Amino acid sequence: MNFYSVYDQGFVRVAACTPNCEIGDPDFNAQATLELARQGHAEGVGLMVFPELGISSYSIDDLLGQDALLKGVDAAIAEIVRASRDLTPVLLVGAPLQNGGRLYNCAVAIHAGRILGVVPKMHLPNYREFYEKRWFASGRGVRGESIRVAGETVPFGTDLIFAAEDMEDFVCHIEICEDLWAPAAPSDFGALAGALILANLSASNITVGKADTRKLLCSAQSARSLSAYVYSAAGPGESTTDLAWDGQACIYELGSLLAETDRFPTTSQMCVADIDVERLRLERLRTGTFNDAATLNLTAGHEFRRVTFQFKKPKGDIGLKRDVARFPFVPADESRLDQDCYETFNIQVQGLMKRLRSTGIKRLCIGISGGLDSTHALLVAARAFDQLGWPRSDILCFTMPGFATGDATKSNAWALMRSMGVTAEEVDIRPLALQLLKDLKHPFGSGKPVYDTTFENVQAGLRTDFLFRAANQRNALVLGTGDLSEIGLGWSTYGVGDQMSHYNVNASVPKTLIQHLIRWVIRSGDFDAEANATLESILGTLISPELVPADENGVMQSTEDKIGPYDLHDFALYYTTRFGLRPSKIAFLAYNAWRDAGAGVWPPHFPADKRRSFDLPVIKHWMEVFLFRFFTISQFKRSASPNGPKVTSGGSLSPRGDWRAPSDGNARIWLKELKSNVPDAKA
Question: Using alpha carbons only, what angle is made at residue 235 by residues 229 and 237, rounded to the nearest 5 degrees?
Fold first, then answer.
């Protein structure tokens, strides 16, 4: 395996193509097709999708019945087949073809000097500006047949899918234009039969608003069928006698747009993207209803023939042609991020309101540290109490300084509590902690600067113990503040510690999202200027548990120095739990997302001074840490997780939710895969 090869990492590079054309000129159209095909070959493309009837051109009406034209189309296809011997991509071209005394609107699959098969259009539009039944026969009953094209006899029918013998997940189905617009599209069944890439050769004239509908259909089809959808429409050169053409081409995967061309081009163009076919296969594997639908629909008479081919995939590093978000839990698009923050915050608020109503308890106890997580939990609590019409004074907040509490965080904690109008108290846990350490005969109890796990957990445990006892005394619920990232890494004190609460609103919210939620709250204007100023100060605070005193240089304990950057851990957490990807593939994606701080798009409002990059050795090191912590030492804490609402897709580690695993598991197979397949540095 070559770590840097997109094909070895389970991607297939595809292109949606709109070549220039001349109406009724197969020779010209074949050369325009081959010009793009050679460009695709040079770029390492594996599959290229061209427009419907692209070899003849679409808008030629009764010229489709001319024998000279049809013979010219056959000869042009033969020329493309000959030229394909020296080309890597599978080419899907559109052409009118005769069979059994009928004319069919067809897609021809060509690869490495041979025709793999021909798929006829099933649904023929015959309304408004369309008149296809005048010329073509429907392919809906064509199954198990063959056709003679360019001197070859090849498989012919709507029952074909095309699969590479030497690349497990490179499996393609073809449909044509109107097929996508009809209920129960042919690609529904192609996907159920195992095709991961769905291709649509379209002509599709343009009218106002139609482009958005096309994209909606492509997006929905890729999302519903857990597939990629590659769409190409006719462009420059088609007849404008009564219609116009915008050359729209696009590529979708699981509902998300990967690439699209400009519309209304004046010359040939294509868009290129790397489709993660491995991820698509895993998504289907993990979604039982997909295979239930396959069992229901692929009954006798609806089977598919699998046409195989040898695909000599491009070798080496040809780059990655797709955007990889640095923060998979945080959209880079401002409107989408605003929507996600709105939904996340209100899911948390609704979850807490329901728990308070159902218990009949009208008070909360929260520990306020001056850090991100407790701050956000308090914001959620304040909004919940406001919506319930309850006084915020019944939110009982405690700041509990220990041996390492900094002046800045303590000051922020008090400023936040005052600005929120809650009931605030300070409890110094140091005397109790010191007594407990003395009783344990811990070295710190006799004045020695030993800061081990016991030293840290005595403080963390006392804080949580106090909150539970205060909740007993004051008829309140303890509100948890630990976030999804900490739960994934096991970065919490088990039992009577911050791992436990009565209800945890942050349980499904990753660390990388919480900062954006707080910024969203600031922009919402729900709190006054004093509160917002405090929130801004908290956003700039070092992430620290503040359990170990500062060193001789005054440097505070840093969580990320000890367990690694949350940027990388959240990245690994998302792809591990949401898609089940191999560690080496996650490292490959992280390498492409994080190696250059100046490349790509950062989430809006992300501070420039916090934009960092990571090279491959750093990514590999911290991924080893993540895998060990996630699979080996943290599951027992997650198995005893308190309740909390699921917020993000793949963002729940509750044993009652997305993630169920043995508490006594290990990370050996994941670490082995990572170490075997990820180099320490780029050669």
Answer: 150
Residue 680: burial class (beta carbons within 10 Å; 0-12, 13-18, 19+): exposed
Contact 556, 406 (CB under 8 A): yes
Arithmetic mean of pLDDT, 658-682: 94
- pLDDT band for position 554 (cuts 50, 70, 90): low
- Identify the pLDDT of residue 541: 83
Core vs surface per residue 83-120: b (16+ CB within 10 A) or e = bbeebbbbbbbbbbbbbeeebbbbbbbbbbeebbbbbb
pTM higher than 0.90: yes
Active site residues: 52, 121, 177
Coil, helix or strand at residue 653? coil
Q: First vs last Cα of the chain: how many Å apart? A: 14
Alpha carbons within 13 angstroms on the beta-carbon side of residue 655 total 12
For residue 240, the SS3 value is coil
Question: For 132-150, what is the HEC assignment?
Answer: HHHCCCCCCCCCCEEEEEC
> Is pLDDT above 90 for 662?
yes
Nearest to 630 by CA among 590, 657, 670: 670
CA distance 32 to 523: 52
How high does pLDDT run on average in the chain? 95
The whole-number average pLDDT for the span 277-295 is 95
Residue 567 zone, left/alpha/beta (φ > 0; ψ -120 to 50; rest): alpha
Which residue type sits at 310?
A: Q
